[in-house]
């Protein structure tokens, strides 16, 4: 038989989703599992979002909507971007998509193709390089170190730009790093972006999980030249505990949004009408109290983790992950790699964490503190015992 598409064959499966499925299977088989791999918060969706969804069903909202989402949803997103991010977009520049994931895919598809390069800072969220490959372009991995808290720096970006570079990905706050770019850092990166005429795909999905000073800044808000080359990605999945509803969105220059909408019109069309109403409710009823509790969670998880001798981790300033360097415990008869470290930890203690190899950073592991606080505390205690036993 003829070979399948090289673009499709180049895509690797999501290691985090595979690991979660494995942990679920173990739990279902009766094993005690402490799942610290989770990529979603544990609080319930906002009550208003649920009520609005029920109302939408009762109102008979079962038809196609505009491909980019109802005007009501796009008006609400527009207001959010203006009030929280100092970003002024028209509603025709905003597209609701099936999760931030589809918004990202639309963005990469429209920006680049065969022969183009996209700079993806590592440690990266697993999906970026795969989506770049899926559209036929090449991800160029720029590995950031501990001294920049695993964040892209202007010098690092500069070193990875070639005449073929089309765009750079910025994830703020970062998954898996748990760290956040300051305005000053964004300004310095922006200078390189402008000089090399790059686009920016800016993923702000963890924006509301922020433990630093002030708010999370968007590079698009640094001025018109930046806004004209940035695709802002966000959604209600993480901040409103609504990962299953699949509502994300993009805001971009009109020319780019028009093409993203055209692509979506030929792939999935609109986000489920009922989910769109739920998203409006969610944005009117953001669970600020539950979100604020994550600051305290991040602090106690960080204290407990860094009390383990030999573990080095940047202080968490965003998202809900800790990304410690565990390379000290590798080799010398112990686990040889972070994959082995995580497999052995799971076998011996039932604690599930993600090896850094999944994120292009083999000396680290990712620990999520979005699980119930008791589970996180016990998981970290077992991690400590495991490390001492090595
Ligand atoms: N961006 C990042 C950095 C993420 O971690 C995730 C979810 N793991 C997404 C986007 C996807 O969000 P959604 O569920 O809205 O597609």
TrEMBL record:
Domain of life per record: Bacteria
Cofactor (UniProt)? pyridoxal 5'-phosphate
Which EC numbers does the record give? 2.6.1.-
GO MF, any single term: transaminase activity
Query: Which Pfam families does this one have?
Result: Aminotran_1_2
Alphabetically sorted, this entry's keywords are: Aminotransferase, Antibiotic biosynthesis, Pyridoxal phosphate, Transferase
Q: Which residues form the Aminotransferase class I/classII large domain?
A: 32-371
| Signal peptide positions (record) | none
GO biological process: one example: antibiotic biosynthetic process
Instruction: Cite the PANTHER family for this sequence.
Output: ASPARTATE AMINOTRANSFERASE
> So what family is this one in?
Belongs to the class-I pyridoxal-phosphate-dependent aminotransferase family.
Name the record gives this protein: Aminotransferase
Q: Which organism is it from?
A: Amycolatopsis orientalis
